[in-house]
Structure formats: C-alpha cells, structure tokens
Amino acid sequence: MVSSRFFPIRLGAMGLAVSWVLAGAAPAVASPSPSAAVRALIEDVQGVLDDPALEGPEKKETREGKIRELLTARFHLGAMAAEALGEHLAARTPGERQEFTRLFGDLFTRAYTRLVVTFLAQAAMEYGAEEIRDATATVQTDVVNRRGERLPVAYRLERAGEAWELRDVVIDGVSIVENYRVQFHKIIAASSYENLVKRLRAKREEVSAGSAPPR
Asked: What is the reported pTM?
C-alpha cells in the first residue's frame, strides 16, 4: 500500500519507508562506465561515513548534509523531477519547474539517505551485473548486513555524451522515481498541482525544523 499523505515507499519484507529531503539539482559527474559511476558514488558516501571528524550523534546533521551534497552532485535531479511529474510538467512555468526540482531533490536525497546510506555504515556492499541497452543502463548492487541479509539496490543511468547520469534507484524492487510519479499523479488528479506543492513545502519545513517524526 502507498500512503499519499506522507509519500512512503513500501519495500516488501524490509518494511522500509521514505523520508523527506533537502537538496537541489545539479549536473551528474562524468564517469567512463555505469558501474564506475555507481561505485564512485558509494565509495564517496562511505568516505563520509568513515570520516573520524564526522563520527558521533552530535555530527549526524553535518554528516547527512555532506551526503546530500554528494547525491545532489551525482544524480540528475532535474531530469528525475520531470519524470516524476510526468504529463503535468507541460503546464508548469519555468519558475514552477525550478521550485519543483528543488522539492523533489529534497524528497529523493533524504529517501536515499534513510533507505540505503543508513545501512552502509554497518554493512558490506556487493556489486553485481551491469546491463547496457542503447543509452540506458542498470547496475545491480546488494547491501549485505552482518547477519547476511541482503537489500538489493539497483541504479538506473542514462548516457549524456561521454558521461553516465544517475537517474533512479530501485530498492528491493521499488523504483523511487516511479513510486513518487504515481503518488504525485493521484494527488494532482484528486485536487491540484498547487496542493501537491503546498504539501511538499510544508513537509520540507517540518523536516528542516526537526518536527517531522521518523519514518
């Protein structure tokens, strides 16, 4: 089931849910292959998690902020926001599109942080198959905890010139972008685009103020 009120993602037996985020849009970093792009992202995130200067609960916000900066730089949030908004994009002004990209960036980067990054500090990363079809690619990975339990995480990328841009993450079979696309469409159909944006703004303010309950 999907709750349109808080936009969670249900991840099968894992029972995980998406939280809200604070980030913006930025171009992807060029990489020679899809697997290289994914590996570079994960290694840089792990570098933040392993940094002695960022250890401890008192550094949690700083640590997560640096990770969100990495995600903002590596994922093409503008293209992902457009895909999530789908058919409703055409009617939006340039200013509305810019704001929506920021709001979507908030949503996505905190979701990825909670659903994947949270587990990396106490788990091993295994890299699986890379599949390239024309200008798109998928890279399979598994986050493996100390009990040997696996969380499958696949990354979807698209070619942009000589680079590969990260465009989506599929966690335990659930696409983050597609999940939000379905939920956004339902809210707009039931009320309006303006209502969707209002709710996204309100939820971002809750998270920024530290008042949103953990998901």
From this structure: 0.82
